[in-house]
Amino acid sequence: MASASSNALSVTSSSTFVDSKAPRQTTGGSPQCVTLPTLPPPPVQSHTRPWKTTAYCRKIARNVMAMATGEAPAEVATGELPEIVKTVQEAWDKVEDKYAVSSLAIAGVVALWGSTGMISAIDRLPLIPGVLEIVGIGYTGWFAYKNLIFKPDREALVQKIKDTYKEIIGSS
């Protein structure tokens, strides 16, 4: 065992890049050179999902075309804000007490977060979610029977919705 470990093995390294097309030079079994095996060829892509590959390649080609032409995408090039942003900015400018509106918005977010936590806690109880699901199905059936099945009831529901909409938005 001692005689086997006493033999010194030196490994030389080279910084030359070996191209797959260039001829490989091997040393004829020299104990001072160690050659590494070549890498296996890349795996063949499966043809089970060619549409995914095609869609990805189209996306890349579209991006390359946009960059090659030097044109910016339409939404960036226009520089205009969407209509809803303009409407929100105009409404915010009309508000007199911005502190109160901001406080109400924060309170609404906190209430939504708290109610989400409460609902998830109720959902973890063993029997309550099933009972609430049955109650919801029952109420949906009752609402459909009362308001949607017969034509006069449907018309009354549509009129009630329109009246509520006009109360909220205002008659304009």
Shape: extended
Query: Largest sheet, described in full?
Result: none
Mean pLDDT: 75
Any idea what the radius of gyration is?
36 Å
Please state the structural category: mainly alpha
SSE string: HHHHHHH
Helical coverage, percent range: 55-70%
Number of helices: 7
Distance between the termini: 100 Å
Fold and architecture overview:
- With 172 residues, this protein is mainly alpha-helical.
- Helix content is 62%, strand content 0%.
- It has 7 helices and no strands.
- The longest helix is centred in the middle third of the chain and has 26 residues, at 98-123.
- The chain is extended.
Key terms:
about 60% helix, about 170 residues, disordered N terminus, mainly alpha, single chain
Topology summary:
Elements: H1 2-6, H2 50-69, H3 74-78, H4 83-94, H5 98-123, H6 128-147, H7 151-169
Task: Give a nutshell description of this structure.
The protein is built from seven helices and no strands. The chain is mostly helical and 172 residues long.
